[in-house]
Design a protein that fits this description.
Largest sheet: 4 strands, mixed
InterPro entries: MetalloPept_cat_dom_sf (IPR024079), Peptidase_M13 (IPR000718), Peptidase_M13_C (IPR018497), Peptidase_M13_dom_2 (IPR042089), Peptidase_M13_N (IPR008753)
Keywords: Hydrolase, Metal-binding, Metalloprotease, Protease, Zinc
Radius of gyration: 26 Å
GO biological process, one term: proteolysis
Organism: Homo sapiens (Human)
Strand order of the largest sheet: 3-4-6-5
Helix content: 40-55%
Protein name: Kell blood group glycoprotein
Structural class: alpha/beta
Distance between the termini: 57 Å
């Protein structure tokens, strides 16, 4: 990469050569992101996407100037530590780190919020590599993208999806300025960013510096402190990421056998039937919309466990000849990163008529794909404590069942958006909207916890509706199947077990991604739906007017 002036060893190399190496060999994208994603007009056709960069600092467009400055001060301290750990002269480290912060700040100011781009109808733009070269000439787009997405064969006429053209134009101008006047500082900025990206694979001094920065930034942004993650957890996650083709088949064979799959499908069928029944009785839907909604549910595809593609025998036997594991942990990680990128590109180039899963089989995150009209429940979700064929039905319906219902309601998100259902009773729908927002706003928030009710509204509606649908399905099952449905060690009725099971899987500690989460904080995901369900207050004998037994409730679903 040519080194850097901080350590006194620096060879002024071609800027685009360095950028090309950072992107293709290290997976580091200092000025923009480039990745493969579905074509906007054809979801099963892959296309290279050029997007805004992901900044390492938690900046927001509407941040107070004082907080903004404090965040940058902490980040400057962190960069100084990195430069010193790498043997740099302290005075030079301070100067180059400050310039790196300045570059980051200017790039951040070029960003346009998603809401602004959506309002202007400019979420993305189809351009060729040649056209992008004219718009942002500082970057040798063809050579950088060709190196990153080998073995794809790219040409100047290759179409790309660009998410923010104006950002790229401004970014290009900044790079050209730096190349004319401060080329060595631009090099330092790229190298510092690379070290930040690689810090999890470096020694404990780098990891400790990173941990302290994260702690300070969470304090400044008034987020609760994060508990330390044990090292084994990161090792398991990275092994799963790098060797998923082999591990997927092994995991599913071990954890999601035919009996588990059959029991999970029965649960899903009961939840789906309860949703269809509920759709027939929604006061804000007319008969035509109800019929349309029922048809959408009937046509829905469901995939459980793992994708058929992931379970192909040849993938399980993959030998990973391109991965070199040696005495250097860093070099081993980099070898795995390059191998993974090559496999991702290769998989996108192969015909893939079915839905392409967005999660690993051991993940616990279910999702609904709008483009393929398919709902996905990975095998990791259909494990304890969410689900087990031998659990009492109350446990399975309360945990996995409510999650299944939540995902099914994603089918109808469009109806809840302004103007999304012209044939609906929009007055009743708007009243239900406002009611639910007021309901969630009434809950006290723990210290250092915040949420945006406009951002979380759709997920809140799905949480409340999902619990109600799962309870309806479970109540119907109780009428048809009698027998032992309680847990011997707990003095709880079947219905109480149902609600306890729901609360147990929703209640958790906050995660680092919570600031970008469209879900409410964990305690609201428990209290909001439970307090919206009259049966909960009845079975737990909550006093009228108590937090979980309000005097009035809302119903969207």
């Amino acid at each position: 990469l040519g080194g850097w002036r901080i350590s006194g060893k620096w060879t002024s190399l071609n800027f685009n050569r360095t950028l090309r190496l950072l992107m293709s060999q290290y997976g580091h994208f200092p000025f923009f992101r480039a990745y493969l994603g579905p074509h906007p007009a054809s979801p099963h056709t892959p296309v290279i996407q050029i997007d805004q960069p992901e900044f390492d600092v938690p900046l927001k467009q509407d941040q107070e100037q004082k907080i903004y400055a404090q965040i940058f001060r902490e980040y400057l301290t962190y960069l100084n530590q990195l430069g010193t750990l790498l043997g740099g002269d302290p005075s030079k480290v301070q100067e180059h780190s400050s310039l790196s912060i300045s570059i980051t700040s200017r790039l951040f100011q070029f960003l346009r919020p998603l809401e602004q781009r959506r309002a202007q109808g400019k979420l993305f733009q189809m351009v060729t590599i040649d056209q992008l070269k004219e718009m942002a000439p500082a970057i040798d787009w063809l050579s950088c993208l060709q190196a990153t997405f080998t073995p794809m064969s790219l040409s100047p006429s290759q179409s790309l999806v660009v998410h923010d053209v104006e950002y790229l134009k401004n970014m290009s101008q900044l790079v050209e300025e730096m190349l004319l006047k401060q080329r060595d500082f631009l090099q330092s900025h790229m190298i510092l960013g690379l070290v930040v990206t690689l810090s999890p694979a470096l020694d404990s001094q780098f990891q400790e510096a990173r941990r302290k920065l994260s702690q300070k930034l969470r304090e400044l942004t008034e987020q609760p402190p994060m508990p330390a993650r044990p090292r084994w957890m990161k090792c398991v996650e990275e092994t799963g990421t790098f060797f998923e083709p082999t591990l997927a088949a092994l995991f599913v064979r071990e954890a999601f056998g035919p009996s588990t799959r059959s029991a999970a499908m029965k649960l899903f069928t009961a939840i789906r039937d309860a949703l269809i029944t509920r759709l027939r009785n929604l006061p804000w839907m007319n008969e035509e919309t109800q019929n349309m909604a029922q048809d959408k549910v009937a046509q829905l595809q469901v995939e459980m466990g793992a994708s058929e593609w992931a379970l192909k025998p040849e993938l399980a036997r993959q030998e990973y000849n391109d991965i070199q594991l040696g005495s250097s942990f860093l070099q081993s990680v980099l070898s795995c990163v390059r191998s993974l990128r090559a496999r991702i590109v290769q998989s996108f180039l192969q015909p893939h008529p079915q839905h392409r899963w967005k999660v690993s089989p051991w993940d616990v995150n279910a999702y609904y794909s709008v483009s393929d009209h398919v709902v996905v429940f990975p095998a990791g979700l259909l494990q304890p404590p969410f689900f087990h064929p031998g659990y009492p039905r109350a446990v399975n319906f309360g945990a996995a069942g409510s999650i299944m219902a939540h995902e099914l309601l994603h089918i109808f998100y469009q109806l809840l958006l302004p103007g999304g259902c012209l044939a609906c009773d929009n007055h009743a729908l708007q009243e239900a909207h406002l009611c639910l927002k007021r309901h969630y706003a009434a809950f006290p928030l723990p210290s250092r916890t915040s949420f945006n009710d406009s951002l979380t509204f759709l997920e809140n509606a799905a949480d409340v509706g999902g619990l109600a649908i799962a309870l309806q399905a479970y109540s119907k099952r109780l009428l048809r199947h009698h027998g032992k449905t309680v847990l011997p060690s707990l003095d709880l009725s079947p219905q109480q077990i149902f609600f306890r099971s729901y609360a147990q899987v929703m209640c958790r500690k906050p995660s680092p991604q919570d600031s970008h989460d469209t879900h409410s904080p964990p305690h609201l995901r428990v209290h909001g739906p439970l307090s919206s369900t009259p049966a909960f207050a009845r079975y737990f004998r909550c006093a009228r007017g108590a937090l979980l037994n309000p005097s009035s409730r809302c119903q969207l679903w």
